[in-house]
Amino acid sequence: MSDEKAVKIPAQSDGAAPTEGSQSGEILLKVTGLQKHFPIRKGLLQRQTGSVRAVDGIDFEVRKGETLGVVGESGCGKSTMGRLITRLLEPTAGKVEFEGKDITHLGVAGMRPLRRDVQMIFQDPYSSLNPRHTVGTIVGAPFKLQGVEPEGGIKKEVQRLLSVVGLNPEHYNRYPHEFSGGQRQRIGIARALALSPKLVVADEPVSALDVSIQAQVVNLLDDLQEELGLTYVIIAHDLSVVRHVSDRIAVMYLGKVVELSDRDSLYKAPMHPYTKALMSAVPIPDPKRKNEKSERILLKGDVPSPISPPTGCRFHTRCWKATEICRTTEPQLLELKPGQRVACHHPENFEDQAPQDTVLLSAAKEAAELVPDEVLEESAQTSAAVAAEVEAVAAPEEPAAAEAEGAAAADAASDAEGSQDAPEEPGASEDSDESGPAADADTSAESGKPEASAGQESTEK
Ligand SMILES: Nc1ncnc2c1ncn2[C@@H]1O[C@H](COP(=O)(O)OP(=O)(O)OP(=O)(O)O)[C@@H](O)[C@H]1O
């Protein structure tokens, strides 16, 4: 927890109602099919030779009063997404709606009123503040730009904002270099809050700060949300930060949202293998679990290039569950559990979406070497259990049959456990990513459904 003095937050003059849970709130921002492709130009004539598909068709919504955390490895398009929704960048395709109004292609004049409602906090408090301007000028700039005259004058309002973010209002005339990193980030936050925005997009708001200072700034953002009824989109690569602040979390991979879920469901039972891998890297601050064996999943290689992303599921080149369908068919982001959307053919903690597709790609077999056996076993077990549950619900009139199915699935799971170290069956799983659709059809015909749903990744090992 923060070691700084409690921040006293005075009431906001036209303050919004304090935040009420976020689960069923009104939608403030809605994004549909959003894309940003940066052209790559070469030669004297600057011909376009390709494009960086930084954001490549994403859908999500942000509800009033909630915090949506956005996570993913470096280069997956988080910042680009943040700049698109604040309209600092023009989307290549798709739609951005704010309070039900389409703002996708608004021009400078059309955007002016919106600039008051949507603000951004930037990552680097060292470069985002003009070193030649005083704090008073920096925090007061939004009033001048918008032609707003706050009650009591700009100076008084800026001093109030400085005290809201825990800075000394007397430091109004100081310059950014006279402040520490954490204090500079507070200046950036004060500037973002100046016009009482409805939505604040914070791009890595604490990653440039010392760890001890990070907690202070995160707590400040939390307090401000409660007091001012703010809605946040917080972009971060640090899952501990995101877990602390978010109500819901969107996991991005190579320009796509692969999972979008309530925070607790995501941390308790992630459904996308990529989410599971990311989560496994988060240290668990629980002394009771200190001596537990680590089940960290190491992902193979780097994120592929967004210039030519892999076909089908973009994660298939690093996924230990990938089969032919993952290489050929892009999975849609579907709500498989209430409040949990995932784009995966072979999700974790859920029934397999492509149980007929059982032959692992060679990349998956290599990736599986980096996944601890415990994780593979647990994955096979949970898939089997969920599949059995689904079967039972699907056929209530035949309880005996459902039970038999469940038992078969559970058996298959334990078989799968047993076969972790079993030698590969000759031919059966040989480099199917090199094989054509005919090979795929063969293997589909061979594979039985209950066995497949019991954790296809292990049965083929
Ligand atoms: N203006 C630009 N022109 C060309 N490519 C760009 C531009 N901005 C971003 N990109 C590319 O788009 C991809 C996504 O970048 P982005 O900064 O959105 O990712 P990110 O997830 O925020 O990464 P990081 O955490 O490192 O900032 C990257 O491959 C990046 O190189």
TrEMBL record:
Organism domain of life: Bacteria
Acidic residues bias (residue ranges): 422-434
Short name of any one Pfam family annotated for the protein: ABC_tran
Residues of the ABC transporter domain: 29-279
SMART domains noted in UniProt: AAA (SM00382)
Keyword vocabulary terms for this entry: ATP-binding, Nucleotide-binding, Transport
GO molecular function: ATP binding
Low complexity composition-biased segments: 391-421
Recorded family membership: Belongs to the ABC transporter superfamily.
Protein name, as recorded: Dipeptide ABC transporter ATP-binding protein
Protein's organism: Streptomyces lannensis
